[in-house]
Amino acid sequence: MQATSPFPFANLSTELILLIFAHAARPTFVETSDDASKNPYASALSLCHVSKIVRRTVLPELLRTVLLPEYTNVTAFVRTLRMQQAFALEGNDLRFDYAGRVDRIWFGRICEPPPQAPVQSNFASSITSELDADFSLLAPVLLSAPSLALDFESLWLLYGCLEYAWNSHIHNNDPERVPPPWRTNNLTLVGEFNRWRPLTSTTEGSAFLASISRLSFLSPARAETHLLPTYDPCFDDLEHRKYPLPEWMASVPWNSFKRLRTVSLVLPRIVLTAAAKTSLSEENVDVELLTLFDPPHSAYWEPKDISAYIESGEGHIVSVGVRTKLGDSPIQFSVSFDWEEAWACGLLK
Question: N or C end of the chain: which has fewer CB within 10 A?
Answer without folding.
Answer: N
